[in-house]
Structure of Beta-lactamase-inhibitor-like PepSY-like domain-containing protein:
Amino acid sequence: MNKLKTSLLILMLLASISASAGYAPDSVQIALKKMYPTAVGIAWSQDKAYYVADFMMNGFDTKVWFNSDAEWVMKQTDWETLDEVPAAVFNAFAASQFSDGVVQNVVWVQFPKWQPIVAIQVGKPNVQIKYQILFTPKGEVLRQQNITYAYNTLGASTFL
């Protein structure tokens, strides 16, 4: 009977370890705290070779990517709507072929060495098709693509 209890206890411990929240090395966690000292409630995950910190900042869901050397590679701020976008992006979107679509998400993407990008995800009314349009802050279209069947269209590996 003791062997059965011990086995169950070990099995439960192993299950709880594998089901625990994501992990990031100490160096990556320290780098995040240096950049965002007030960040709390951080959930860690991995996106291929990158460590991703997910937390709330200024009322917006924020994700920050680091490589294995604890170097910052990308930050996403989930604005959700067009309310926060630069006026040039709003005007460019309003003049685009997608302006009659339903805006499903808006993300502000920042990089250490590149200009920021505004990613707008839009669906067409009455069809199950989704598009993603990437804008510069000046309203220039960098890329537009059908992402209906795509997964993780804004991960660090998309841009690096």
Confidence is low (pLDDT under 50) at residues 4-20. The beta strands are 43-47, 50-57, 60-66, 72-78, 102-110, 117-123, 130-135, 141-146. The first strand starts at residue 43 and ends at 47.
